[in-house]
Specification:
By secondary structure, the protein is an alpha+beta fold. It is 27% helix and 27% strand. It has 17 helices and 34 strands. The strands form seven sheets. Strands 26-27-25-30-31-34-33-32-29 form a nine-stranded antiparallel sheet. Strands 14-23-22-16-17-18-24-28 form an eight-stranded mixed sheet, sandwiched between helices. Strands 3, 4, 5, 6, 12, 13 and 15 form a seven-stranded mixed sheet that branches. A hairpin with a 5-residue loop joins strand 10 (208-210) and strand 11 (216-218). Helix 10 crosses helix 11 (419-428) and helix 10 (403-417) packs across helix 15 (499-521). The two termini are 29 Å apart.
Length: 731
């Protein structure tokens, strides 16, 4: 399948027109929208339910398309935000915003399909709206690694030499592995590519990904191919189970992303889903972006006690253990899960699980999502009796996933065989390199903290042969000459790693995870944690389990769900069935716009002075929509009104700025950056306005309490919806 990307020409043209039409030009190179706060009238209080500081009545100064100035009365108050009573309304990359922002379930969906798009492995699950207690896992994947129980498939994509889709998952990996080495150099193989979206600071629609052979492809195409594969698999399975199910508008799709991802990355996944044909861009509400630790938290609410493994059990007073050792209990749970997987259907509680029924209002817990690429931490508080969740501290984490262990292994190989050789081998024998990483992955899963015997890792014959030809000596000689003492050469043709060597590979990544969880627990907002839920694929590692238990079992109960690698996927299905479960979230950044305020001598710097029509204005004032780590409830809206600078103006462009602190004053302060734009597309008025009604007011409503920032707008004069969109990818 070939995807066609939209060209930027129309965006550039409309963007320039919008900037010249009233929201740029006051300061060269900066977009200033002149929004000043008038007093709040008594009649306005029912519309603006925020704590507010009343300021004197002022007028808005705007610059038109040809430099003409227009003076219009200011819109509603633009107050500062306090506590959780702020009014906040949606900002989405949506093409058709709705007037009713809070009511998200107005469109009936017959089935919810969730895609857990992971760094190392991915999968899908679904549930019918008529039977929400049953979560159906995807069909068993073809292929797989011996001894590894997997209900997901590797996040590996194979494209043909001409860039067309060939296969995904085990099929892609195995086919690429079996290619002739010379032929493999022309094929485009991608693995663990999700991390690129997190690590790219200037992510755009044209960001590229590098295949194993060094060739580059647009990242949006790569992600769209992967999502289209899951769409095709899920639809086929749904049609087999329910032949009468209509494909159009019957499915709500959910895609999981790390909670620490910024808005551009979330929008990127949405755009990839549009390109893959999951949903049309005109129906954005048909696709939800779920935050991975949130999804895990939602699923943990449903678990029974026998579906949880408590790592915090201590010896009783009589010296007897109250439960089995960690490794034993976890292996037993995994075996029980393996036996039950033939059904592929998991039943969840219609109400709260047993653990949740023990919780009191206000009890708080941490969900640590330890995945392949990132570690994502979310702090939630339970709200009884409704069972909704409230986020207590903004999502945190970092690139501390299981991939860090893989990188440490690669670094070890470079230390033994030489960095230049490893780089050459990866370029010349890419399929053999993939084979080597598979062999390491299998051994990595068996690593344990108290393991006594060594681990053998098979080296592909092509590695041994290539090294001999490239260096003129054999692999065993290289090991003897290297400074690495904990890795030996086995007579069976394998690298023999001591348990100490394997522990050293895990240590840097695990130490970062422990440090980050510990730092989070020291925050005042996070004191009194009752539980620490460990979820995600990396949480299956007994190395990580032991480290977390040792560090935190004295502070709180450390809990692991039995099906720890599928927790996020199942929770994403539950989130799709009811997106209102998380009632309050925390803003990860401070967001706002640049405005003009009256210039005050002694308060404002002289370089910010702008004199227009005999009045002194201070430019570049940062007017906040929402502050970093501020509690924002689902459905709360921030409203601002904007006035076109001239009659007949068809587009308004508003620049959005963000920063990681709350003490920002100007959009030029250190740490403040332009992060996105709001576009308001205006229809022509049906009849010319009379002089008394020449002022056209567009009211924009922004929502920060959802998993994505969203925007909607309305023409106050006509009460008609204005097409509004927000873009974080065009900076």
């Amino acid at each position: 399948m070939v995807f066609s990307l939209r060209g930027p020409e129309e965006e550039v043209a409309s963007g320039e027109a919008g900037r010249s039409a009233g929201l740029g030009g006051l300061c060269p190179g900066r977009a200033i929208c002149g929004l000043l706060a008038p007093p709040v009238k008594k009649s306005q209080k029912s519309d603006v339910k925020m704590s507010t500081l009343v300021e004197p009545a002022m007028h808005t100064l705007q610059i038109g398309a040809n430099g003409e100035r227009s003076r219009t009365p200011s819109p509603q108050n633009s107050p500062r935000l306090h506590n959780e009573s702020c009014n906040i309304a949606p900002l989405t990359p949506s093409q058709s915003p709705r007037n009713e922002i809070r009511m998200r379930q107005t469109t009936p969906f017959s089935v919810v399909v969730a895609i857990d798009f992971g760094t190392t492995s991915s999968g899908y699950a679904f549930s019918f709206a008529s039977d929400p207690e049953a979560i159906h896992m995807m069909r068993k994947w073809e292929g797989g690694d011996p001894g590894v129980a997997h209900q997901k498939t590797p996040t590996s994509l194979l494209l043909t030499p001409d860039g067309s889709f060939h296969s995904f998952g085990y099929t892609a990996r195995d086919y690429y592995h079996d290619l002739d080495p010379d032929e493999a150099r022309d094929w485009l193989y991608f693995e663990k590519f999700k991390m690129k979206i997190h690590s790219t600071s200037d992510l755009t629609m044209k960001t590229e990904l590098e295949a194993v052979n060094g060739k580059k492809v647009q990242a949006l195409q790569v992600f769209a191919h992967a999502l289209h594969f899951f769409k095709r698999q899920a639809l086929q399975e749904l049609k087999d189970q329910c032949p009468a199910l209509p494909e159009k508008d019957a499915i709500r799709w959910v895609i999981t992303v790390p909670a620490i991802w910024k808005q551009p990355a979330k929008q990127f996944m949405r755009e990839a889903a549009y390109l893959a044909g999951l949903v049309p861009s005109e129906n954005p509400e048909q696709l939800l972006i779920a935050l991975e630790p949130e999804a895990a938290s939602i699923y943990c609410r449903k678990l029974r006690l026998n579906q949880l493994i408590d790592l915090s059990y201590k010896p009783q007073a009589n010296g007897l253990m109250s439960d089995l050792p960690i490794d034993s209990s976890f292996r037993q749970a995994r075996e029980q899960l393996r036996r039950s997987r033939h059904s592929r259907t998991f039943l969840v509680e219609s109400g709260m699980g047993e653990l949740w029924s023990e919780m009191q209002t206000g009890d708080r817990y941490i969900v640590a999502d330890c995945g392949g690429g990132t570690v994502d931490l979310t702090v939630h508080q339970i709200e009884q009796p409704q069972g909704t969740l409230k986020e207590l501290y903004k999502a945190s984490g970092g690139p501390y996933g299981a991939v860090g262990v893989d990188l440490a292994f690669e670094k070890l190989l470079c230390q033994i065989f030489g960095e230049d050789f490893i780089a050459t081998f990866k370029a010349k024998r890419p399929a053999a390199w993939v084979d080597l990483t598979i062999a390491f992955e299998a051994r990595k899963r068996t690593a344990a903290p108290h393991r006594a015997n060594s681990l053998n890792i098979s080296l592909p014959f092509s590695f041994i042969d290539f090294y001999r030809k490239h260096r003129g000596q054999n692999v065993e000689t290289a090991l003897k000459r290297s400074s690495v003492n904990l890795v030996k050469w086995s007579s069976q043709g394998m690298l023999r790693m001591s348990s100490e060597a394997m522990n050293e590979l895990f240590q840097p990544t695990i130490s970062q995870i422990i440090t980050h969880i510990g730092d989070l627990m020291k925050k005042p907002e996070v004191k009194g944690i009752k539980f620490l839920f460990l979820v995600g694929g990396f949480a299956e590692s007994s190395m990580l389990q032991h480290a977390v238990q040792s560090a935190f079992s004295a502070v709180c109960r450390v809990i692991i769900p039995q099906d720890v690698g599928l927790t996020i996927l199942k929770g994403a299905v539950l989130f799709g069935l009811d997106p209102t479960i998380v009632r309050v979230r925390r803003s990860p950044l401070t967001y706002g716009v640049g405005v003009l305020n009256k210039f005050v001598e002694g308060k404002h710097p002289r370089e910010k002075l702008l004199v227009k029509e005999g009045k002194n204005w201070c430019t570049d004032i940062f007017e906040k929509f929402v502050s970093v780590d501020q509690s924002v409830a689902l459905g709360e809206v921030v409203q601002r009104s904007y006035c076109p600078a001239r009659m007949g103006q068809r587009k308004i462009i508003i620049n959005i700025y963000c920063c990681g602190t709350d003490d920002v004053v100007y959009i030029t302060d250190p740490g403040v950056r332009k992060c996105g734009t709001i576009s308001l597309d205006l229809d022509e008025l049906e009849e010319p306005s009379s002089p008394k009604k020449s002022r056209r007011e567009i009211r924009a409503s922004m929502q920060f309490g959802d998993t994505e920032i969203k925007v909607a707008a309305m023409d106050v004069q006509t009460s008609k919806t204005v097409r509004a969109s927000i873009d974080f990818l065009s900076n």
